[in-house]
Request: fold
Amino acid sequence: MGRYLVQRILAIIPVFMIVAITVFMLIHITPGDPALLMAGDEATPAQIDALRKDLGLDKPIHIQLMNYFKDISRGNLGHSIFNNHDVRGLIVQRLEPTLSIAFVAEGLAILIGIPLGIIAAWKSNTLYDRLIMIFAVGGFAIPSFWLGYNLIWLFAVKLSWFPAIGYNPIGEGIVPWISSITLPCISIGTIGAALIVRMTRSSMLEILREDYIRTARAKGLAEFPVLIRHAFKNAGLPVVTVIGLGIAGLVTGLVVTEAVFAIPGVGRLMVNGVARRDFPIIQGVVLATTVSYVLINLLIDLSYGYLDPKIRYK
Reply:
């Protein structure tokens, strides 16, 4: 296990380097003068030259790359062009809304998706199965922003049960916090649940055809222990993979949802950075989200050994 972990960590290093180089090149592959793009059309030549010097763009590109690696190795992601705030600090400030929505939404997707997937496999080719598959297909077909706007119209405008936009930090109270993230979580949790339903059903159908399942039933075991302890336990690895990738995708991809519900998260920070051509923010967010995605995938791989004793890490 320890040797495998070391190998995986060493394998991650080239990935980080490639991503860091790609992020660094964002400034240089952008058409035009990066300093002019960031300074704006009304900037004077002196202001453009000062910005170019401040960003280190007046140095040779290999020197710029070395300085960039030195900065990120110390956790320095630079400063925003427009407000001169530390990019790492800005990302940390926006993490709570993004992580809150991502984990609560994925938890909702798990609570909905796994039971429905098990029922669909258990009652395959019946009315229950067809109704659940309609939900699963609909979850993929409905865009999250369309569902979000309809949830706002119904539960915020018509019924006034939840706030339409904004986010209340958890420090201000559990109830306001839950109220502010309920609609965003339902909006994106539905899509996650649809994927988990389909994966759970597909994995369970294969396991339910195995001989040891028929043997367990022949011994007189109740249906619930057969489905959960014997079938789902052995069908859980693909489901765990989907859940892990879902969490990683939500952490890194809440741009649309945060825009719809005006959530001050990392996704909205990225949108603002793109709109203002604030390259340090864009670079910092892309690098941070890539790191989180890779680490979550590593945790998924390590969890396999605990879920399935037959797996041995070498």
